[in-house]
Amino acid sequence: MRAAPPIGTYRSCEGDFFFVTFFTLPITRSIVRDSLLIADRLRARAREDSRENRAYVIVATAPSASMATLKLGLAPKTIKYLMFAFNLLFVITGIVLLSIGVVIHGVYHEYQHFLDNSFFSVPSLLVALGSIIFIIAFFGCCGAIRESYCMVVTFCTLLAAILLLEVIGGTMGYVMRARVATVTQSKMVETMSKYNDSQEIQFVWDNLQRDFKCCGTVNATDWINQPNLSGIPMSCCDDTIGAVNATQCTLTSPSLHDVGCMDAFARFAEKHASKIAGVGLGLGVIQLLGIFLSSYLARSIRTCYQTM
């Protein structure tokens, strides 16, 4: 019984191939040195057994990123660098999503008295996705540079998950856009009666009516119909500081805002929802491109492993 080689696995058989060693670790100098020693032993054995017409072969396989680099063709290498460039663009999309989420969350928070908590889920989701994209881009860049099959597949999977979450967020935003008018109307009617009781509500209403050039929920008469109010707030009229006898805002005031705040705020929300949908569509196209590039690169790396 002959001793087994110090590295790999030993297999003997009759025929053209007598000795095979498999290396599953990245090739190092010590492995190469030991392989050469094994080859010398095989050559000596070959001379001794030449009468039996046997041959000896060493096969070394190392599915590592370093050897895959040598095997990638021109097209996969091009995809590799395109994917690296895509990840830079992907980081920019993350910044865009993060910025949009923060801005919308700030706007919604300013008018939180006119919305329910479900409206904050979409901007919160955008902020979360924008933050997660930075982590995903790390896998994409490292996977492309190191030509790591596992990291590229992880990047592709996470990218597909992000795209799915964006579709869910877009659907939620579209559904909530249809509810803006209904929710806003009920919240506005509820808070109008508290105008004189809460400085916070008074501040929010005054800012809303000045910023959107609106008055009341449907129109200015909503304020007159409130039993605990003395009249129409001054925020329903344009700035009259310094004007003669400009002490109150009435239905006959020439600067009275004739648009109800429910319609004005609903149009504002729908306008921004349309912009978000457009941005989301553009980001979705970019991410689909990233999924295609990463899938192609992963398949190329895997092919290199199988043919080595």
Topology:
Elements: H1 29-48, H2 65-71, H3 74-110, H4 121-146, H5 149-192, H6 199-211, H7 221-224, H8 261-307
Would you mind describing this structure in some detail?
- This protein has 308 residues and is an all-alpha fold.
- It has a domain at 178-307: Orthogonal Bundle (Cd81 Antigen, Extracellular Domain, Chain: A), CATH 1.10.1450.
- Helix content is 64%, strand content 0%.
- It contains 8 helices and no strands.
- It has helices spanning 29-48, 65-71, 74-110, 121-146, 149-192, 199-211, 221-224, 261-307.
- Helix 3 (74-110) packs antiparallel against helix 4 (121-146), helix 4 packs antiparallel against helix 5 and helix 5 runs antiparallel to helix 8 (261-307).
Shape: rod-shaped
CATH topology of the domain at 178-307: Cd81 Antigen, Extracellular Domain, Chain: A
Number of helical runs? 8
- Which class best fits the helix and strand makeup? mainly alpha
Order of helices and strands: HHHHHHHH
DSSP strand tally: 0
Q: Which parts are unreliable, with pLDDT below 50 for 5 consecutive residues or more?
A: 1-27, 51-71
The proportion of residues forming helix, as a percent range, comes to: 55-70%
The CATH superfamily title of the domain at 178-307: Tetraspanin
Strand content: under 5%
CATH class of the domain at 178-307: Mainly Alpha
Quaternary structure: single chain
Calculate the terminal CA-CA distance, rounded to whole Å: 32 Å
Mean pLDDT: 72
Largest sheet: none
Cα radius of gyration in angstroms: 35 Å
CATH second-level architecture of the domain at 178-307 = Orthogonal Bundle
GO cellular component, one term: plasma membrane
InterPro entries: Tetraspanin/Peripherin (IPR018499), Tetraspanin_CS (IPR018503), Tetraspanin_EC2_sf (IPR008952)
Subcellular location: Membrane
Organism: Ooceraea biroi (Clonal raider ant)
